[in-house]
Amino acid sequence: MPIVLEKVSHHYRSGPQVSVALEDISLTIHDGELLALIGHTGSGKSTLAQHLNGLLEPTSGRVLLNGEDINQKGAQRRALRFRVGLVFQYPEHQLFEETVFKDIAFGPKNMGLTGQEIEQRVRGAMAQVGLDFEEMKDRSPFELSGGQMRRVALAGVLAIQPSVLVLDEPTAGLDPRARDYLLEDIRRLNREGTTVVMISHAMDDVARLATRVAVLEKGRLVMQGSVLEIFSQQERLAAMGLDIPAGFKLARRLREAGLDMADHAQPEEIADALAAAIRGGGGSAA
Amino acid sequence: MLRDITLGQYYPVDSPVHRLDPRLKIILTFLYIIAVFLVGNLLFYLPVAAYLVFAARMAKLPAGMMLRSLRPMRILLVITFVLNLFFFSGTQELVRVGSVVIWREGLINALIFTFRLIFLVTGSSILTLTTAPVTLTDGLERLASPLKVIKFPAHEMAMMMTIALRFIPTLMEEADKIMKAQTARGADFETGNLLARARAMIPLLVPLFISAFRRAGDLAMAMEARCYHGGEGRTRLHKLQYGRRDALALVSMLALYLLILLPGWLS
Predict the structure, then answer these.
(1) Which end of chain B, N or C, is surrounded by fewer C-beta atoms within 10 Å?
(2) How far is A209 from chain B (nearest CA, A)?
(3) What total of structural domains would you count in chain A?
(4) Rounded to whole angstroms, how far apart are CA atoms A241 and A40?
(5) Both B74 and B202 in a single domain?
(6) Closest by Cα among A140, A107, A111, A110 to A122
């Protein structure tokens, strides 16, 4: 279910002033990919995310889901929201029910599902984010740890079983362990077939997970490509105030130190390349 | 959807009226309101109206802005006018249609009461249009501080108002975000009957309250960390001080009083 953005612009109007949030964005989100959206604060990432499920309407341009304009008259907005799930920043701030079960069931209930289907979905969603159903279902979401609350909130969207999942800074504010768990959940979801769009400031996470990266600056789409293609252009990214993943920094420093070292997306690959270089450079050492 | 609501109506330009001491502005507004009530004669509404126009011009407020403050009052204005016009009986007949009579006194009364309302609303709107909310609460606190003698918590009141005003935009933004997030889960805030809609607000209100309490807790902690302990012995960064401008403004108000009271004394 590909999402195609055609020349999407979005202008905010506050009083007499018009500020441009998105300008002329054309982007295709392919089935099964994990697209990372990166950009400086205020570059329009979150605004773009809200266009993907029709929460915001473009000032001009079109958003097509499966070839259909989602904003055309008579479009089924609610049905659309069940196909494209959006997880906001700090989603745990939106929990409201008395129990974890009820909170996760909110989406399925809104879909008009009945008792057994709802329970199935809640079970499934909780399993997807690694929450034990029996242990957690009757607990209040407000007595959980930050990482667990975030998982409950994520499960609340997953229970809708969207085919595209949009995540706005999913790991912001989590401790390293909770972050690793969550990233693993996202990776697994993607492998199981959910298309994922992930907004992130954490370049290491992006390098780890993304199959493709799109860079926004001041509301414009300025770069898109594979992790390698994007992060090998450090100067361009630095000019936009963006960092590169630790692995790319390391490779760069090694090159500066005179080692023959290519860029790699995954830390493991760098380790292998480094080991090979040391062995090769050390000559007869091995 | 919540973005469209504007709170407070401060009109941020630089004018002599904007720079008046907020305490004096509050006092002047009260004096003006009293003046409006003192006048019971259409002719004397001329100086009252002139003063309003003068103040608005000095404050560089566009006429449309002033009229807009009357918009929420328009029904009340019409009712006031119509009731006085038709149900006030006098001695001099103006128009008679069947059994309905409009008396001269009725017309005059209708005009007086309607104008009184107009002057009241526009007059006090000059205060809120030219004074930033925080400055206004500052002025209120200083005016109310003599009441501390009778244990009136002037400082605490002002601090509460300031904090409340400060957090309105924050909470609006938060409400907008939560609303969107629940909409993304299929919540429906816009259709259904009254009961259904009230129910639909729960997923919005619960997180909003929780976040408000969390923010309140954080703020209290932050204030204590900086040794806030109420108003006692607290000094100010911006000290309010009356100046020449304030004296002139007071004189202008006295001139208005002279104009409306003098004829009565002389005759």
Answers:
(1) C
(2) 24
(3) 2
(4) 6
(5) no
(6) A107
